Structures are given as C-alpha cells and as structure tokens.
Target: Bifunctional protein GAL10
Amino acid sequence: MTTQKRVLVTGGAGYIGSHTVVELIENGYECVIVDNLCNSSYDSVARLEILTKHHIPFYKVDLCDHDGLEKVFQEHNIDSVIHFAGLKAVGESTQIPLTYYHNNILGTLVLLELMQKYHVEKFVFSSSATVYGDATRFPDMIPIPEECPLGPTNPYGQTKLGIENILRDLYNSQKDIWKVAILRYFNPIGAHPSGLIGEDPLGIPNNLLPYMAQVAVGRREKLYVFGNDYDSRDGTPIRDYIHVVDLAKGHIASLKYLDAIDQKTGICREWNLGSGTGSTVLEVYRAFCDASGIEIPYEITGRRAGDVLNLTAKPDRATKELKWKTELDVSIACKDLWKWATENPFGYQLNGISATFGTDEEEFDGRFVTIGSGSRFQATIANLGATLVDLKVDGQSVVLGYEKESQYLTPDTCYIGATIGRYANRIAHGKFALNGKDYQLTINNGVNANHGSIGSFHAKRFLGPILKNPTKDTFTAEYALIDNSEDSEFPGSLQVIVNYTLNVATKTLDIEYTAQVEVEATPINMTNHTYFNLNKLYGSDSIAGTEIKVISNKSIDVDENVIPTGKIVDREIATFDDSKPTVLGKEGPDYDYNFFVDATATPNQIDTRGNELKLVTTAYHPESNIKLEVSSTEPSYQVYTGDWLCAGFHPRQGFAVEPGRYVNAINQDKYKGSVILKPGETFGAKIQYKFSA
Amino acid sequence: MTTQKRVLVTGGAGYIGSHTVVELIENGYECVIVDNLCNSSYDSVARLEILTKHHIPFYKVDLCDHDGLEKVFQEHNIDSVIHFAGLKAVGESTQIPLTYYHNNILGTLVLLELMQKYHVEKFVFSSSATVYGDATRFPDMIPIPEECPLGPTNPYGQTKLGIENILRDLYNSQKDIWKVAILRYFNPIGAHPSGLIGEDPLGIPNNLLPYMAQVAVGRREKLYVFGNDYDSRDGTPIRDYIHVVDLAKGHIASLKYLDAIDQKTGICREWNLGSGTGSTVLEVYRAFCDASGIEIPYEITGRRAGDVLNLTAKPDRATKELKWKTELDVSIACKDLWKWATENPFGYQLNGISATFGTDEEEFDGRFVTIGSGSRFQATIANLGATLVDLKVDGQSVVLGYEKESQYLTPDTCYIGATIGRYANRIAHGKFALNGKDYQLTINNGVNANHGSIGSFHAKRFLGPILKNPTKDTFTAEYALIDNSEDSEFPGSLQVIVNYTLNVATKTLDIEYTAQVEVEATPINMTNHTYFNLNKLYGSDSIAGTEIKVISNKSIDVDENVIPTGKIVDREIATFDDSKPTVLGKEGPDYDYNFFVDATATPNQIDTRGNELKLVTTAYHPESNIKLEVSSTEPSYQVYTGDWLCAGFHPRQGFAVEPGRYVNAINQDKYKGSVILKPGETFGAKIQYKFSA
Model:
C-alpha cells in the first residue's frame, strides 16, 4: 500500500476549497483542512466527510496564528499546500483595506515561512483574474492572456497581486526548491452535483449567481442588473463563468503538473482558469431561470463603478500545459446551483441546529450536534458512536448521557446512547460461520460476545454529519461509518449510514440504519442503546415509578448463559397483561428479555427499511407526565431495566428498549438470513422514539 | 507655553531617521523613537539627546509587536508618524524575501492599525525611488517624475510599493481623515555636520559612499566600480545623490505641508526627494577623494545585474508644493561624511564598550554603560546622576555602587558615585545672595544645605552619552544635563557636560565638568562623590588597612555647624606628615575636612579646566596592592572617611576625596568669584583617578 500524499488545504471549508477537497480525494490525495471559519462553516467539512467517505482532519486556525498553524505541520506529513484562505469581498476591501492586507498577506507569509521550515515546497495559490484589473485598457488583451500587464483596482486585488509577487520573489530566492502554481480564477459558479456543498455567502451575495439563487428561493426581492448599455449582444457586460467543479479540477491538474516536475527543478508559473467563453449577465440570467423554472424578477439599474465590458479568459496556457479545460457549461452550473439552493435554501446556516465540543479543545471531530436546538424537542448527537447524547422533551432531559466525549470511552462501557454494531445483542460463545469460514469474536459478556464485542461502533468516530432542515418542523443528522475489515473481527468492509430525523412538532425521533458491503458478506444487526429515564427532574437516579408496557408477550427462551434455547415462550409476568402496565420499582421487576414483535412474521429479509413501524413498548411516568412510545421495523426487541448499569450510572437509573434482529440469529438457521448482509444488498432498520407530555 | 506636537519616528535610530529627528526638534517638534535596533544602535539616540539637548523617549519595539507598540500610543499623545522602520538591503531582500515582506508590510500594517485606533492620522512614509524600478524602460522618464509607472525589480522595492498601495487604499477608504505623504528618496549620502551621527551599516556597505569611507579609513581594501561602459560623461552610471540633512529637511517640509491642510480634508500624495542633478560614480569618487585628501584605490569591474544608466529625480513637485529643494551638494556631503568617518571610524559599534540596564525592563534611559569593557581598567557609568557605578582595576572593583538604578534613588542618599551639582559641599544655612537677590535653599544637612540640596544632580537623568574610542587606549563617555531654572532652587538654566575619559593603559579616569548659563548667573561647584574601597575582594565591608596620604595640611577651619570660620588652619594629625601615610583603622581616624591644594593660589577664576592637575591625595592598600592617586584642577578638596555612610552601606566601607571649590565660597567675598557662573562664561573643573597595581 503506497502512502497517499497529504495536501494541506487552507480555506478548505469555503466554496472553492471544499469542491477542491472532493476532487483531491477522488484523485487519491489525502487532505487536511485549515480554516478560521470567519466566512465559512465547519458543516461543509462534515458534509465533505460523507461525500468523500474519508475522515478529513480539520483545524480551526487562523493562518496569522503561527503556533497554531505550526501544530498542523507537526502533526501531519504535508506534501503540498493549496492556499485558498483569504478575505475576498471586493467592496468590503475598499472599506477596511488594512484588515484585508493584514489577513491575506500575513496569513500567506506565515504559511510560506512554515512551509520553508518544514520543507514543504509545492504550493498552489488561489489567485484571481482581479489581478489584471481592467484589461480592456490595453489593446488586444481580450481574451486575457497571462502576459497581460497587472493592475488591480481594489485592495482585494492588491492582496492577490501582492501574494503573487511574494511567490515570484520566493521562487527567485530558491529556484531549485519551490514549485508554485498561481491560478487566476475567472468567475466561479455552480455547486457540486451532489447538492451537498455549494456557495454559502454570509450577508448579501456579491456575485450574480448566489444573488439570483437567493431571489429564487425568496430570500431577496429581485435581481439588479447594473447597466444594459454596454457594447455586447444584449447590452450587459460579458464575463467568463466557470463551473466550480471544473475549477476544482484545475487545481488537481496544476498539482499533478507540479508533482511531475523533476525534484531539483523549481517553477513559478501563472495559469488562467477560465472557459474562454464569455456570457452576458442576461444570458446567465436566462440559463438560471430555465434551470430553476422560475422567472426571477429583475431590474436594470445604472452601471456600477469599475465595471467594464468584457473580461474573458484566454485559457490556452492551462489547456496546453495542464491538459485541463472546462467541461461544464453555464446551464449545468445553473442546474447544480439550483439543486444546492433548493436543498439548502439557507446554506449551512440553519436555525435550530447548534454544536458544541465533546472534547476540551475545539476538536471538531469530537463534536456534539444538537438538532431542534431551542425548540420543545431536541436531540444531541455525538460523532463518537453516532451516539444519542441527550434528548430533551419540553426542556427536560429524558435519557442518560455524558458531558464529555472521553466519558463514553471508559472500558466498563454500558453503551450509553450508542449506535450498536456491527452486531447488536449476543452471539453465543462469540462464534459464527459464514461462507464456509468459522469466525471467533472476542468474548466480552460471560461466555458470549455482545454488541459487536471489541471494535464495537460505540467507540468509533462516525463521519459527518450532514445536517438539514428539510421541512419547517424536521431536522436531520446523517452520520456515516466506514468500518473496514482490517479494523474489525467481522469479515468484509461495511459502510453504514445512521440517520436521525427529529420532528419537533410530533416529538418523534426516528433513527434509521442502512448499510452495505462491497466484497464480502458480514453478519449485521444494528440498534440504538439509549437508556431512558422519564423523570430525571424529580428522580434522576432511578426509573422507579415508570409504568412500562411491552406490547408482545412472546419471548425467546434462553439458557443459563443467556443463549436462546430455540424455544418461544410466553412470559407469564404482569407486564404482559396489556390491560394494565407494570410499574417499575426501585429493585424490580428486572427485565433483560428479547421479545417477538409478531410471532407469525417471517423475519428473514435483510432490508426492513420499507416495513411499517410497529409499536413495541410504551413507558410513562406520572410525576413528569412524559410518555414514550418505541416503534420499530425490527422483528424483535430487547427490554432491559438497567440492573447492571455502570460507568458512572447507578443500576436502574435508566431502562433500554433495543429493537433488532433475534438474539444470536447468526447461529440459528431459521433466522440467519435476516442478519447476513451480502454485496449488492442494503441492510435497513428503523427505530422511532415518540414522546408526548 | 504651547504644547509641542509629538512625532512618532519609527526607525528613528537609523541613518535617515536620526537625521530627521535633529531637524524635527530644531523645528519645534517633540519626538518619540521606536526602533527594534535590528540594524541600528541605541547610541545614535543617546547622541541625538546631546546634539538636540532634548530627552528623546525611546522604545525598543518591533513594529510587528502590536502590544509593545500600543504602549507607545498609550504613553504619548502622538500627533503624527514618520515611518522609516524597515529592512532595506536590496541584495538581502532577494535572498530572504519572506523576511522582508513580513517585517516591512506587517510592521506598517500594525502601525497603521494603531494609528487608526488612536486617531493619529498624519503619516509620512519613507518610500524609495526603487518603486520606479528601471525608469529607463519608458521613453522620456529621465529625470523621473512622480507620474512614472511603478515597477520595482526586487523584493525590497516590492515592499515599498506594497506599502504605498496600502496607504493609497487606506486614504481612499477614509478620504476626509488621512493625511499621507509618500516620500520617494533618491540616493541619500553624507552625515550630520556635527560628526555625531551618520550612516553605520552593519557588514559590507551596499552603497557607494559608506563603502568608500570604509576604504578610506582602512576597513576595506579598495572600491569596485561596476562598469565604465555606460553612455555617460565618464562611462559610469548616473545617480541622484542627496545630502541626508537635505533629505531630513524634506520630511519637515512634508509634515508642515500636511499640518497646513484643513482638518476635514485628506490627502495621499507622492513626492520625489532628490536634487534633480545626476552625478556619475567617478564624479562622486573624485569628490570624496578631495574631501578626504585620500586617493582611494579602485577597480573597474563588470556591470552589476539590474543597474541602469541614469536614475535622476525630477524634484519639481516637491519644490513647488513643499517649498523644498536640496541645498547641500555632493562635495559638502563628502566632507561631512569624512568628518563622521574619521571621528567614528567604526560607527557606533565600538569594542570595549558595553551597556546594561539599570532598571528591570530594557529601559534605555536607565542605562549603565561600561567603557573599557573587557580590559584591565573599566568604568561603568549611569545616566542617572552621570554616576560612576563601578570602576574595576585588573578585574577588581574599587568603588562602592549599586546594581539597580532605583537603589540610587533612596531618600537617605549618600551620593554614592554621583556627580554633585549644582553646588557641591555646604552652603551655610542654605542662604546666598546673587545680583541683589537673596536665595534660600532647602536645608538638608544640619543647619546647612549640602550638595545642591533638593534638585541635586545625583537624582537627575543626564542626556547621552556620546561614547567614543578616540585612541586605541582611550574611551570617552560624555553626558549632558539641561538643569532648567524651573526645576531648581538656584537661579538660571544651566547646561552641564560631564565627560569621562578612561585610559586603559595608564589606568586613569578623568572626569571633566563644563557648564554654561544663558541668561542668569548661578552659583556652581561640581565634583564627583565616589567612595573608594581599595580592598573589596578581601575586606569589602571596611576601608581598614588603607594607607592614605593627603598632600596638603592647610585646611579651612569650621565651627560646630561645619561652617568655615574664615581661618586657615594646619591640621596637626599624623596624616599630614608626608613622609609616611596614615593607616586607616576600623573606627578611626575619621576625617571630614576641606583642604587647600595650595594656600597661595588665587582661587577666583570660574574656568579651571586649563589648569594643571595637581595631586591631592594618594591611597594604597597593601593586601590588594592597589594604589590610587587623586589629582584635580580644583583649589580645595574634601576628604571624608565615610563615617556616616548609609543607604545599604556600612560606616567606613569607603572613603571619598571630593575636589572642588572652597566650602561655602558663595558666602565669602574672597572666594565668591570662583563659584559664580555668568552668561558668556564657561565653568570648568577636572578630576583624575589614577590607579596602579
């Protein structure tokens, strides 16, 4: 296995940076992102993790912070740097020029100084066609070649030119060392076709496309077109628009170009990244209206100071040398932008979602995300184990959870709130056979293996999440886990998605599991291991007083090792009288039984996602007046009154209802089909917690 | 009295900065200097203090250090800023461009940010003709007007242009606030005619004149002339040389121009500062040989990369708008440079001189300077009181002194090592009459005023010093004090110079006092109050064992209040037997007598500087084998065995020999003439401590 090259992407949480990270990973590079998030959101990185199925180390560091940035160089073996980070609003730069110079120039200098110190000498710089200024002031400079004299007309452009000059001087000072690509962007537009990442400007957008998108989704009233009296096809100015995915690919092309240069040969060269084709404002307007199906209102107003007729790239140098050219036209860009805009009308900035950190420092990997934040029903979920950390009903917490990520990692874990996988519940003696091979899992529960044993998902950091607010009352958080076979006692590399959907109006939290394998089959059984306590406010140390009702009385009989005997039995205890619930006391009754949802079901299909949710357990506490209904697609469910609760909690401080496949199904011919996931299939399961109060 | 405008001068310890400070103070501005001293010396500031007769607050702060620089803005009411600070070696800038960009650009940004914060909005920037690059690439741009397109050809020039751009953008962002003068220097040469300040490049000089000066004084072998095949009068390139004093005056002109603009009107404008007259390399060479009287060896070598034929300023804009033009030609510049070079052949960087700080922080005002440092005879002197802090003979300290400046400021002072003034020794009842007016000093010694009473020089910070190494074995340190009448109980404003001259070969320390008054006469009597202990190594707590010999036995008789009775008496004690010295014991004999050097002298002249030094006292300690001879120009001397020593020292830990005018002379008609300094006269006195060991 060859070590992949690690690229430091500054500003990688931003618009162009995030799209470039996708292309880098698709091209076999590893990334590490540094971003101060002053004009971007960590959620773009969280989404990139799911989009690329890769963990992406992230540092919230300002490039001017030498020590903070040096830590990144110390912790990663950086091969090259793509430098996007910088303030970029032309108008703002004319108002606060010192801030622009300080941030953009110093940030770059500190970065280059650390590169020099750590012998990282490949650099791709995010410059801009702004460095040309008004190229129409020269004869024969449209389309604009790289040889066009430079002359920015605003502080933002001056910082770009200043950095270009620094790079040329740095190269000249050590010509056999530095490999520098200066990429002069024309007008990037569009979004990733996945709809997951796109441009998310804070405040009023400066650029045409984001502005139109905001008008189309109703955030702005109408589009202003600045002048229709230019000497163009329709009187509006001509610009060279380039799909952001094409632009991102230009970075890969330039990085590969630098990679291919001899080791002892330096270079510092500029390349235009543009399409070579100009579009007028009204042409782009038309393309966007067509893509969105919305006739956007617009108004022609006077020319804007500094605007010129035509700024189109001559991209021949990139075509010839980098073997790169644009492939996606304005209409595709408009289509992709519209997908992004409609699926994320408020970009990454969602009301009702907040995040804190499960670790002491701002370690973004250890993030706790709250969906429904500030509403009457909210769920907090950790990346670690895609764990339900907290669930609040009308402001009252109803589950057990910890404050810090590290508390979830104690060796005597009780799987508090965790996603359980690959295999929930017991496997007898930790043994199973699959495709003619015998497997032995580590024994971690009496004579059995329980909850996936070592390598259990509760202690793995999931990728993501993708956070969305698809309807007014609904919030979703989607996590992914790539559970490679080399990290597991189970066969096969598994890709798992855990999707939390919170409805603040109906007070329901749905948890959906889907999973796939690519090459080898694996046993699978997934559930959530939340411990509920419906009366934490008045009696947080015990579930006593909870009235619990289990819907079925059919249960799998188990022997003294808690291994199913193969028999189905009727549990002859009060709780199975559906006319009145069992009141849980301080000491008992103590349950740890696996029940059948429906004894007549044929529980052998792997994908139960489409199945109807069936109520399996209800619980109510009269003191808090909070009621819980647990439903599930799953054929069975474990009910556990927490009599062995540990790791900072008391016995019977919470109870668990764990819907899933039958206990030890992998070792029972009758049920085995329901827990073996083969390539080409999709595992599915869904659990719902519904509250009323 | 109008408050004078305070100008912050960054890089004020440097070549052009220091010359500008002189002109600022001559034009009625106050200055505060900030300099990181990375390429300059604090000694230029110390010399500026004496040259300008002003205290100049100094901060050793790097402009990139925001907090350090902010302190300056907090502690001073800054009116305007002249910004010289910056790295400036063209060749070095091509080797370490990041350092140049970081230092020059960031330093300027931090400065401007603080100016913005503290509403300081007048800025004069030290730019350079380097921003034009090769102006010969355009037709008709020689002489170079400000309108010439810019295009620096090296990182140094890029930083200057970068800062110009920042200034223009800053002005554009707040047009009614900023008043910015951008001064583009041509080739500054020469030095201040005083010979006290000049260019002091570290390492090999980059510029023609300092290089020639170093060849002339023997530090370099010969001059290299890069190319004599240009199309000029003599084949060598033409440059516009400008005397640094003219250049400094250009800053005053531009500052006054900014001062004269209406309050609510901004400006950002560039002015060339050049003579408009070009000189070839060989013309300057000839001028310097003529000025120095030395035919400097030179060699013609090939052209230097980047050099062009002619870079001469068009200075018309400055002439017209700033009413400024050069007044000093190349020959005057060469003459002044030669004076500087011969009087300071190693610039400010002298072997055998070191400095530490008498205060905890690096407060340059509280500096302790050691002359003869590292030699067999060395003296350490504080600015406070121009105090002799330490004197080492063959590595052994022979005087009492403190480690910290604050220790010299205890209320129960014993004047340890201090310069005593205005009036050493007692004035009966603190009373005297002068020009028909009666004066009453604060009584601080029994019924008398002693050693100048309150306002004594021992607690005043002197200006300077000027440190020199005029011959191989000689080091001098010259301090000045402007003792204004409003700070004194004495009449008249007094200007005092204290000059220490150390000869490491003869182990002599000469202390010379000179003083003048401008308007009103004053009583004056100055001495040094060092306590000697010739055996500190073995018996530092007592002078016991010292063999002391006082040369005269004529002494002034005093009454019970230690006031002279008017009689001269022979002191009938062993010490006055010149055949054998008196051995001092632990308890006695105790002396505190004023002796006559020569009873027949006529001690009524104010200026005794030219007088022969006469031996007054010898002292020897057999255990250390160190011998001291004290000589003086003065007519009398006090011998004191330290029986009331205080302030951290024991009685009889040191003895003092204090040459001076007669005790209470001001109140005795016979001697009064020797202690009244009138306008037009110069007071003079000299003391010598000579050691052998």
About this structure: Residues 353-692 of chain B form a domain with the Beta-galactosidase; Chain A, domain 5 fold (CATH 2.70.98.10). Chain B has two domains: 5-343, 353-692.
